[in-house]
Amino acid sequence: MKPVLDVAIPACAVLLMTVVGLDVSRAELRRVLSRPRLLVAGLVGPLVLLPPIALFVLRLVPMPAEIAAGMLLLAVCPVGGISNVYSYLARAATALSVTLTAASCVAAVVTMPLLTRAFELVLGRPFGFQAPAGTLAAQVLVLLVLPVAIGMTVRARAPGFAARHEAALRRVALSALALLLGFILWSEWKRFVTNFAVTVAASALFVLLAMVAGAVVAQVAGADARERFTLSVEFATRNSAIATVVAITFLGDTRFAVFATTYFFTEAAVAGVAILMFRRSEALV
Q1: Please, what is the end-to-end C-alpha distance for the chain in angstroms?
Q2: What pLDDT does residue 250 have?
Q3: pLDDT in the model for residue 229
Q4: Is 103 or 232 the better-scoring residue by pLDDT?
Q5: Mean pLDDT of the region 101-127
Q6: In this model, does residue 180 exceed pLDDT 80?
Q7: What confidence tens digit (pLDDT) does each residue in 200-243 have?
Q8: Nearest to 276 by CA among 229, 239, 208, 224
Q9: Residue among 179, 199, 176 at smallest CA distance from 187
Q10: Are 20 and 102 in contact (CB under 8 A)?
Q11: Which residues partner with 79 through β-bridges?
Q12: What is the full DSSP assignment across 160-218?
């Protein structure tokens, strides 16, 4: 199984990040960059607030060591590409979502090793696995930064191709991710069932607290309703694909990926409810 995951999950992550890059145009980028306060809030806010939220959930919800490590790993990951889909379905600030996702992935080369080390200092023990900062940064560069850059380049040089194929590629990438995460659940089914209640509870609590944090930060930054929804989603949506890649690469074991997998499905369920509520509230305005 591991040889399959070693190839399939990185390939899925690369495809997802390429699609994110395909969705970023220079005009949209310039428009978002004209709101530096909002952009900084969306990038720095999760780095400052999500680690304490993860530690709070860890203290509040007792959980096995591998589940706790999986949650901490997810908290240091960049934004997941599916956040763009959530913003699009909600008719929120999609351009802001895409730009923040791309920028978050680029910054992850530095932020993931730093936040991992910060967790180790706060907890006074190893993070849960040994991931050399240089190796982790190189992996994030290959899996996140380069695909986003390739997607943006294709969008700039062949906009017609990007417009025709971006939606189909997104569907393929998200479907592949769902299948792979489902495969991990199947392979770790006994462990998943045993820890189901605690894992879902921790995931749901983390998602909700992250969404509230995002909305508060957006409000302070002077965002409108659409931008507030987008930032709340960006805070809560973590990159399950890269979390799974890192866990399997450095541990050679799918146990640490169980939380990321459960989180993905919990996050999607909560986001779906949030989208419906936001669309209804906008329709009433």
Answers
A1: 51
A2: 59
A3: 95
A4: 232
A5: 78
A6: no
A7: 999 999 999 999 999 999 999 999 999 999 999 999 999 887 77
A8: 229
A9: 179
A10: yes
A11: 238
A12: HHHHHHHHHHHHHHHHHHHHHHHHHHHHTHHHHHHTHHHHHHHHHHHHHHHHHHHHHHH
215 neighbors 221 (Cβ within 8 angstroms): no
- Average pLDDT on 244-260 reads 68
- For residue 144, the one-letter residue type is L
CA-to-CA dists, residue 123 to 43, 93, 131, 162, 220, angstroms: 24, 37, 16, 45, 30
Token pair 């419906």: residue: 276
Q: Which fold has domain 2-280?
A: Na+/H+ antiporter like fold (1.20.1530)
d(CA 255, CA 248): 9
CA 230 to CA 109: how far, in whole Å? 23
User: 123, 75 in Cβ contact below 8 A?
Assistant: no
The pTM score is: 0.79
Query: What does the alpha-carbon distance between residue 65 and residue 156 come to, in Å, rounded to a whole number?
Result: 45
Return the half-sphere exposure (C-beta side, CA atoms, 13 A cut-off) of residue 34.
7
**How far apart, in whole angstroms, are the C-alpha atoms of residue 242 and residue 209?**
22
Residue 113 amino acid letter: P
| 177 and 12 Cβ atoms separated by less than 8 Å | yes
Tell me how far apart the alpha carbons of residues 233 and 104 are, in angstroms, rounded to a whole number.
14
pLDDT for the residue 128: 52
Give the percent of the chain with pLDDT over 70.
80
Residue 246's identity, in one-letter code, is: V
